[in-house]
Design goal:
Methane Monooxygenase Hydroxylase, Chain G, domain 1, Ribosomal Protein L9, domain 1, 2 domains, three-stranded antiparallel β-sheet, two-stranded antiparallel sheet, 5 helices, 5 strands
Length: 198
């Protein structure tokens, strides 16, 4: 498989992340391709170091510098995107509208966790204070109601707020949170490896 990552491509991506306030769309396989690119460059560098000639020394210096520069660029891309994701999570927590369309899978996980955490503290600190109640970060699982077909699950991953097929709003749920949910919703979460039945 041909590697789609190039030094120029990474530089261009960094330039776009700097210029535009919006998170830039990048290929889904970007991180996999980056790892492959870095491994290839390291192999080339190792190979060049084994050659004994004046020309090889120049090539070694050039390749080593390129490898160092691309790592710096990748770090800056990550940190710029991270900053944008934090801002998006803050907006989502305040407004309830989720936006993860330009994110990589790993970034979506980060975003969902941030939104879930922000919502948890917003509900248990700000909302309670505004309601003239003491903030409480103690999580209590909801009680089962008579006649309801519920399943008790423990969340293995954070899950953002969602609307069930019963049109009720559920979540957000933190990792390790225990909840009694309608069987159909619980089954879906278990199948998608978001929760375990207990």
């Amino acid at each position: 498989m041909t590697n789609i990552i190039t030094y120029e491509g990474v530089y261009d991506l960094l330039r776009k992340e700097k210029i535009y306030p919006e998170l830039q769309k990048i290929p889904d396989a970007f991180l996999t391709e980056v790892v492959s690119y870095l491994n290839e460059k390291t192999e080339i560098l190792d190979s060049q170091r084994q050659q004994n000639s004046i020309f090889a020394e120049k090539e070694v210096g050039k390749t080593a510098k390129q490898l160092e520069n691309i790592k710096k660029m990748l770090k800056e891309i990550y940190e710029r995107r991270e900053n944008k994701i934090v801002k998006l999570a803050l907006i989502a927590s305040k407004t309830g509208s989720l936006n993860d369309s330009s994110m990589l899978k790993e970034e979506q996980e980060m975003y969902n966790t941030l939104v879930s955490n922000l919502n948890f503290y917003r509900e248990n600190v700000l909302a309670k204070v505004l309601d003239k109640k003491q903030p409480s970060l103690e999580v209590k699982p909801p009680e089962k109601k008579e006649g309801e077909n519920l399943k008790t699950v423990r969340f293995t991953n954070p899950v953002p707020q969602f609307i069930g097929n019963d049109q009720k709003v559920y979540g957000p749920f933190e990792e390790e949170y225990v909840a009694n949910l309608p069987s159909e919703i619980a089954e879906l979460l278990i199948i998608n490896k978001r929760a375990q039945e207990i």
